[in-house]
Amino acid sequence: MSKRKPYVRSMDGWWKKNPYFVEYMIHESTALFVAAYAFILLVGVVRLGQGEAAWNTWLEALKSPLSIVCHLVLLAGAIYHTYSWFKILPITMPPVIVGGKKLAPEVLTGSALVVAVAAGLALLGLVWRIAL
Amino acid sequence: MTKIRKRSNAPIFWGLFGAGGMLSALFVPMMIFITGIAIPLGFLLPAGTMSYPKMLAFAQNFIGKGFIFAIISLSLWFAVHRVYHSLHEFGIHAGFGAKLLCYGIAFVSTVVSAFVLLGLGF
Amino acid sequence: MSEQKIIEIEVLRYKPESDEAPHSEVYKVPFTDDMSVLQGAQYIKDNFDGSLTFRWSCRMAICGSCGMMINGIPKLSCETFLRDYYPNRISIEALAHFPIEKDLVVDLSGFIEKLESIQPYIIPKEPRTIEQGEYIQSPEEFNRYIQFTSCINCTLCYAACPQFGLNPDFIGPGAMALLHRYNMDSRDGAAEQRMELVASEEGVYNCSAVGYCSEVCPKHVDPASAVNINKANAAKDYFLRFLSPKGGSK
After folding, report:
1. What would be the CATH architecture of the domain defined by C109-240?
2. pTM, entire model
């Protein structure tokens, strides 16, 4: 008669026990910030479809201090999303071979972040040109 | 005994998640800054940048329409995928109902934005 | 004359024949700067409680036997040193996410089954005779898989992976690293066969890119990369399977 009685430990609160996992949960949560902004845009699009008056109401609402503060918070979350997304790029992308050697993770992340900044600035430039 | 394995349907949601994560990582910070901070405060960009005529023209433009649609829709497919999986990580075994709710939100938002954007004409 | 240093080692003990649940016991272990945590456990077994049970073999970080949670982090106890924790207490526990058989020994049978299930051997693209001679492999072809051959089956990556902890059916990082090793070997032709596992509900999509597996791997295998590269492969297979009669995984 076997004396085996394997004990299965609980996974409750697993992510609180290791700083690596705490950071993981934080960067996962940035999706909520992105979602919140997407909903704001969605409301905007619906208002645009409802005509000038509706659109202007939405536009005015964006000027309120509450909206500005919210957007600053969303901005922080979105920036962290960008940073953490590219930080895990060396894991999620196949290895990049340059000159016969695998590209170091820091180089890959660094390059991707440069591209992200450039993309943002390009967008700003484009909007600026359209605005004028 | 050969185990019959079920193929996962995850690739669909994973693909949308990846596209949305990448697009939002590249453009959402600046979008938030432009639409939520700069223009409302009249900082860096002229206050009339998002006036109704200008925005309508942008949304009627093929590329503008596509961009708005992509940002809204893909960002949401990205976010709901993460939220659904985070439920599992928090120990909430929410099952099919939660999956339907999460992906349903992204689906409905996609349909609504497509409907409105197409309705604005070209 | 230098004083004998004593470090407190807290061990999660569990005797299946008499305990309902694991419980901690603290041992005061005299140590020298060259002693590993494994040697600490051996000291406890030799001097305090002969029933303390743990796996070990080579004591030089190549056999993969001595993995355990050291202050909550999966490590090989033979290459972790008591001096780095002194004067604080060290707590050691069986590898996370596996059922505890006894003390620091876990049930690895699930892991072994997963290794067997991926067909971890070269399955040639076409039958090859001795007369055809050896396979010729270029340095570039060699570099595509060699990193994944370093795995010593220590299962620290499984102890690190929360998705495996939440779903023990997940094929997991180590088995995927080995699977990827064979798929990437130019001598092998069975990527399609292995795809069934990769694309299944127990396959790669359980992974949420936490990346901790690659952090803890003592041999720098980078199992996270092996898993995530195969998400794209499985997606290709999923979407292209109706186009080609043999499926899209090639």
Report:
1. Orthogonal Bundle (1.10)
2. 0.93
